[in-house]
């Protein structure tokens, strides 16, 4: 049987490259895995990890998924206008235009919940809209990092860490006209976003998970004294099977596991199937065993290093060159397989992170099990750039 990656290239050969390619067979398997690991807890889909509306809507139509976790207020408004009625904005916004657009239509206010982690966020909204603005749905972002003395393990997000801090903010929101507190969110980056690279890492994850179960319960109890919570959100692709056991949660969140980029290759508890690729054309031959690809410099965010670069995966046996890596306009790749590539042939690369490369291409070719191809626009292809 031909390698599925070879089939992806053959099926999309008639399309212009560079091109994003999605293996729908792998997407189906990954979606099923996320639902299975969530074990009955609904999964909110993180749009930043897809940035392709057709794929987002496909996944949301499947049992086990519910609602969008957006990354921009402008994106949230756009999604609400497209018919999405449950959008949780995962990050605080400072967009005056975004808040003006939010309160301009009832369907947007009903669909979108914005994130805050301080009274300053409320002050900003009142400053840009005026204190008599329509009610805005609000969720508290609670820091889920593990703190051990001076060590801070996890993402640098909210200043709200303890139940007492969460209750103080909840009390302030509840007392503020124009805001309706409906949720709390905890993102456990030190569990969800860290591969199982050593026994020490696995021990840290177990300890952090146990600490969060205790602290989440205390936070939810404290906040619930001031609000009727509709949303208690936590988790990520790498932690669904752990975080979802917490009975205080109403939902989990995931997105990257659908596309399965290379940063998710090192987890012990699950094995996602690579689904999203970039197909780049060979534009010239630099040496017998080196060819140059057009484009390719889709370096993922985060700490700089080799792990953030895309990885050539088909034909097998190719690698980036040490001196150039993945370039803005050209990307040399080397290896025995390069000797057999011609000008115009294509190479498949896997990105390090899921959604970010979709900002660099305007189309995604979805390839079904039978080789049928459906071309859908990315956010960029729909004329949207949300940051």
Automatic annotation (TrEMBL):
Listed Gene3D superfamilies: Alanine racemase (3.20.20.10)
Single biological process term from Gene Ontology: D-serine catabolic process
InterPro entries: Ala_racemase_N (IPR001608), D-amino_acid_metab_enzyme (IPR051466), PLP-binding_barrel (IPR029066)
GO molecular function annotation: D-serine ammonia-lyase activity
Ranges of residues in domain Alanine racemase N-terminal: 26-196
A Pfam entry, by short name: Ala_racemase_N
Protein name: Unannotated protein
Biological source species: freshwater metagenome
